[in-house]
Design goal:
Layout (H helix, E strand, L loop, with lengths): L2 H14 L3 E4 L11 E5 L2 E7 L8 H12 L3 E5 L2 H13 L3
Length: 94
């Protein structure tokens, strides 16, 4: 399965539960997560990967910075991972 397939599934699932998602780009900052999700006032940063793929060094550094700043950062590499993320949103904000 390709990252693009997981990303399309992710976009659809976030919409289904009433969340907003946006593609995240930050000129001058390499390695930012792929998506920002807003759900009932909570903000989540999400990196989508093909199954088995790992974060690049620049991505890992950026994720660490966001996490240290108190942000919710997730890495998802499967449709099942998307479903777990959605379930965690619906049960209680992370």
């Amino acid at each position: 399965m390709r990252e693009r397939d997981i990303e399309q599934y992710f976009i659809r699932r976030v919409r289904e539960v009433g969340g907003l998602q946006r593609k995240f780009t930050s000129p001058g900052h390499k390695g930012v997560p792929d998506r920002i999700v807003v759900y009932f006032g909570w903000v989540y940063f999400v990196e989508l990967k093909a199954p088995g793929k790992v974060l690049r060094d620049d991505q890992a550094r950026e994720h660490e910075k966001l996490f240290a700043a108190g942000c919710n950062v997730f890495v998802i590499d499967s449709k099942e991972g998307v479903d777990r993320f959605i379930q965690s949103l619906r049960s209680e904000p992370c």
